[in-house]
């Protein structure tokens, strides 16, 4: 898949570097192109939203027919070799990629003002946050958020200077869609997009709250919910178009969970909301399962009428 193909499905390509095509992510306000497609593996990644397969990208952009055709493309030899290597290397599955040069934030004086302006110091301690101040590290001047996939620990690195071209960095050898940030208690969890959303809701007393670190939710993340006994999901998206994509993606799992949605009438992201606004959204949450079932029935009914008209 080349630049011309991406442009035809509505992608704004910024640069081509070997097998990587850098492009502007269509799912959030992306002033600095933060997404890239690997033309060998046919997978894309956005440092803000996450990523997925090329066929998933095409489907999210409304090209269902193209997405179906992409399913017919066999994986490349290079991709098959990589998958085989990963299966044979058990250490890959157990790898803890958290780095030793991170400094744990155990003193309020070491916390960046960017962080303290957003959450309380008690919250920083609760979520075991770190910082990187090593000039030799690509994560220098970034807040380190530990994320987990069962016993494995990874991290997300967020710029606190507000001047770096990429706000978030993920380790190259970390499969982001296998990790979650936050805590799960009981059989109900609130699902939000960002790490600051999780921490702000924790401050407001919503302790069972997690983030997939973007609007894309991976199958492994869904498995983690099931393994932790989650039966009910309350999704709280950001107040933008990407947030609606987030809702649609979770809706694909309506047969596995009871899903409700809580949306702010102010259009704010959860981390920007006051406690009273979050409480109001929680009290007025609505049944996403029922909405999706009713919508599918309506679409099916319309399709039946159209088929009768074309006979």
Give a structural overview:
By secondary structure, this protein is of the alpha+beta class. The protein folds into 3 domains: 3-88, Zinc finger, CHC2-typedomain (DNA Primase, Chain A); 96-179; 191-311, Dna Topoisomerase Vi A Subunit, Chain: A, domain 2 (3-Layer(aba) Sandwich). The chain contains 12 helices and 16 strands. The strands form 3 sheets. Strands 11-13-12-14-15-16 form a 6-stranded mixed β-sheet, with helices on both faces. Strand 12, helix 8 (195-203) and strand 13 form a beta-alpha-beta unit.
Gap between N and C termini, in Å?
38 Å
Number of self-contained structural domains: 3
Assign the CATH topology of the largest domain. Dna Topoisomerase Vi A Subunit, Chain: A, domain 2
Mean pLDDT value = 84
Q: What's the helical proportion of residues?
A: 25-40%
Biggest sheet overview: 6 strands, mixed
Structural class, from secondary structure content?
A: alpha+beta
Oligomer status: single chain
Low-confidence stretches: 90-94
Please report which band the strand proportion falls in: under 5%, 5-15%, 15-25%, 25-35%, 35-45% or over 45%.
Answer: 15-25%
**Any guess at the CATH architecture of the largest domain?**
3-Layer(aba) Sandwich
List keywords for this structure.
single chain, 311 residues, alpha+beta, DNA Primase, Chain A, Dna Topoisomerase Vi A Subunit, Chain: A, domain 2, 3 domains, six-stranded mixed sheet, five-stranded antiparallel sheet, 21% strand
């Amino acid at each position: 898949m080349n630049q011309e193909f991406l442009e035809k499905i509505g992608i704004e390509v910024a640069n081509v570097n070997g097998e990587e095509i850098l492009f502007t992510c269509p799912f959030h306000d992306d002033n600095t192109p933060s997404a890239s497609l690997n033309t060998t593996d046919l997978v894309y990644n956005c440092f803000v939203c996450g990523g997925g397969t090329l066929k998933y990208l095409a489907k999210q952009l409304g090209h269902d027919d193209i997405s179906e055709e992409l399913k017919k493309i066999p994986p490349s030899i290079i991709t098959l070799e990589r998958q085989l290597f990963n299966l044979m290397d058990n250490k890959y599955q157990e790898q803890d990629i958290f780095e030793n040069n991170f400094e744990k934030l155990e003193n309020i004086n070491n916390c960046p003002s960017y962080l303290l302006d957003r959450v309380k110091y008690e919250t920083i301690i609760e979520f075991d946050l770190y910082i990187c101040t090593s000039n030799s590290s690509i994560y220098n001047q970034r807040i380190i958020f530990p994320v987990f996939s069962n016993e494995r620990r990874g991290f997300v690195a967020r710029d606190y200077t507000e001047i770096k071209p990429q706000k978030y960095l993920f380790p190259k050898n970390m499969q982001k869609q296998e990790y979650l940030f936050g805590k799960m208690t009981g059989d109900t969890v609130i699902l939000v997009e960002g790490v600051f959303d999780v921490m702000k809701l924790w401050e407001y007393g919503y302790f069972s709250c997690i983030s997939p670190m973007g609007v894309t939710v991976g199958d492994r993340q869904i498995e983690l919910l099931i393994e932790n006994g989650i039966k009910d999901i309350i999704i709280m998206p950001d107040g933008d178009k990407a947030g609606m994509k987030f809702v649609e993606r979770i809706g694909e799992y309506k047969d596995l969970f009871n899903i409700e949605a809580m949306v702010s009438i102010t259009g704010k992201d959860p981390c920007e909301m006051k406690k009273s606004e979050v409480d109001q959204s929680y009290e007025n949450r609505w049944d996403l399962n029922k909405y999706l079932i009713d919508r599918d029935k309506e679409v099916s009914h319309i399709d039946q009428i159209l088929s009768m008209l074309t006979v």
